[in-house]
Amino acid sequence: MKFTINRPAFINQLNNVLRAISSKTTIPILTGLKMVVTDHSVILTGSDADITIESTLDASDSSYGLSIEEPGAIVLPARFFNEVIKKLPDKQATIEVFNGLQVRITSGTAEFTINGQDANNYPHLPEVESENTVELASDMLREVIDQTRIAVSKQESRPILTGIHVTLNNGILTAVATDSHRLAQRKVELPETADRDFDIVLPGASMTELAKMIADEKDGVKMQITENQALFIFGNTHFYSRLLEGNYPETSRLIPESSDTRLEITASDLLASIERASLLSHESRNNVVKLSVNPENKIATVSGTSADVGNVEEEINADQIVGNPLEISFNPDYMRDALKSFGQTKILISFTTALRPFTLVPTEEKANFVQLITPVRTY
Amino acid sequence: MKFTINRPAFINQLNNVLRAISSKTTIPILTGLKMVVTDHSVILTGSDADITIESTLDASDSSYGLSIEEPGAIVLPARFFNEVIKKLPDKQATIEVFNGLQVRITSGTAEFTINGQDANNYPHLPEVESENTVELASDMLREVIDQTRIAVSKQESRPILTGIHVTLNNGILTAVATDSHRLAQRKVELPETADRDFDIVLPGASMTELAKMIADEKDGVKMQITENQALFIFGNTHFYSRLLEGNYPETSRLIPESSDTRLEITASDLLASIERASLLSHESRNNVVKLSVNPENKIATVSGTSADVGNVEEEINADQIVGNPLEISFNPDYMRDALKSFGQTKILISFTTALRPFTLVPTEEKANFVQLITPVRTY
């Protein structure tokens, strides 16, 4: 195996694959980066068993300045190899296997020799067949992930809740996550997929990583699904994620259908007030902020208290306040996450009683996106 | 006590004073920020007992938009107060003491109430008399600190070595630091101070903080010294540092006066080579890099080895190589710190034998700045 490549372009690709490589893995070879050189490409693979990322650097893409002398394959210590490539003196680097598993890296007058591992010992990639393919716009996919991953459970006690439940049915893609205290649900119409359907649970952590990787992706993302894997294809990258096994709980009946108190407000305005109130609630034992809604005189206030530090009270700038008067307490961190997912848009917050979950939806396209939060009982 | 102030300018000043405030202090009131309001100014004080920073916000400076209604004094929880001020909704904030030790902070519709502490319980500032004043250019002072603090000891076993030894004598300011493995010495001619002298040891940590604070300072820094304190005055800030007690060891005889092997090279070039070699040495048990100098064929190479990972060898780009051939091993982290302190300049490295300390000096103005490193015996 021997090839020469432009360092800057190579570093970009290494950084992509490194996202999947954890130093905390229990399978030692997965701390390595697999490098396979064919006659016309270099294929980099990194994996932590949950996620596998494979980047193909094609010699026909001139930005790589790729010149292949001899095909082959090797596994190299990933973080260390990346550090070496980053610090080499010259614009180009030559990477060559010799004496079986030794790798020589030369650039300028610097010559590194690194001990590699046999690529045959690297786990095989999951096989994903291409019969069930859905094509998604990358910005839409990223939005769906970002809007739902906040409600994914961080606790391993119910592993299925650490995932995002994604279904495709009758041309509608639905993504739901809940940690049993809050819930986020996003729907997207995909009329061209009306003939296909699936029902899977994608790990929240994998999807967070995927959302970062496709942030700059202009083209679409192809999604393929098998029994226990999802594959996302974009640019020169294959992103594999394990699926979570088990039945996701039924969530649709959790969303209340009627409301007794309603508030219209710009999400970012309320977010700023909640962040101020949480300065106090974070100093207190039970992290709770109170919202008092008085539709009669059109006033709503947010307040937070810490016995040690002090308190804060603030009238919020609502566009509309209707229904019954209400005092309700909630975890401001849940509220903050939910509000952030709406950006600068105007939202409608609908309450029933002080002890029942309340919902946040955009005032436009109410049916497509909902955040639900369970209040906290304070008496 | 009551005043109104522009938040952005206030936040800048709070950030300055916060540098001195540690949450890990053993004196509880020092987690607080002391705020004294006079008829025409607000004085902010923060301290960790080693460093005290005092900022005076004068009402005559229109950037503060300062309007004072009532003088007074209070101590507030520093980090928390800073978070509150940062997150307030309006451009201005009004701060008012009521009910003795309660503080009301209002901005827009938000109203915070915070519990303060009695300012009389805050430790008194050290008294520094102004008879022994030296005026220093702020960029020169920062350079002197940055060039010497790298050699300050991090170990408390010999507390005096955690300081920078600063003397003024015959119009020459000398700063020296050593952790007994390396030494940094910088001299500056200050002819206008020929009539004054001092001999003090300033804590390295205080000076690092001071160097950061004066980074953007255009005007000079006034330095005043008493028996156990140094005071640095710049802009609207008083920066007090405790002095270290005890005798600093005699260091001048540690610097060798002759050499047998000499190397001239651009500091940043050698730095890059050392950083590559240290990638390997950091993976090995004894963090050592080897330099081989061969004056006969004008070649010098740097190499690093890790039994587990591999090795690297690199010919370095020296301008001149003269004297006896030499193989010498050293801690690459010490070398890196020393090389960084020279920036892009050309340096002369002078060796005697493989077991004796070697020196790095700029090829121009050799007498003013020296970094010394003790090699490592590898056999």
UniProtKB/TrEMBL annotation, chains A, B:
Compartments where found: Cytoplasm
Family annotation (CDD domains): beta_clamp (cd00140)
Keyword terms, alphabetized: Cytoplasm, DNA replication, DNA-binding, DNA-directed DNA polymerase, Nucleotidyltransferase, Transferase
One Pfam family hit: DNA_pol3_beta
Residue ranges of every copy of the DNA polymerase III beta sliding clamp N-terminal domain listed in the record: 1-126
One MF term in the entry's GO annotations: DNA binding
Domain DNA polymerase III beta sliding clamp central: 136-250
Gene Ontology cellular-component annotations: cytoplasm; DNA polymerase III complex
GO biological process, one term: DNA strand elongation involved in DNA replication
Boundaries of every DNA polymerase III beta sliding clamp C-terminal domain copy: 253-377
Protein family according to the UniProt entry: Belongs to the beta sliding clamp family.
NCBIfam families, A to Z: dnan
Function: Confers DNA tethering and processivity to DNA polymerases and other proteins. Acts as a clamp, forming a ring around DNA (a reaction catalyzed by the clamp-loading complex) which diffuses in an ATP-independent manner freely and bidirectionally along dsDNA. Initially characterized for its ability to contact the catalytic subunit of DNA polymerase III (Pol III), a complex, multichain enzyme responsible for most of the replicative synthesis in bacteria; Pol III exhibits 3'-5' exonuclease proofreading activity.
Record note on quaternary structure: Forms a ring-shaped head-to-tail homodimer around DNA.
PANTHER family, sorted: BETA SLIDING CLAMP, DNA POLYMERASE III SUBUNIT BETA
Protein name in UniProt: Beta sliding clamp
Native source species: Limosilactobacillus mucosae DSM 13345
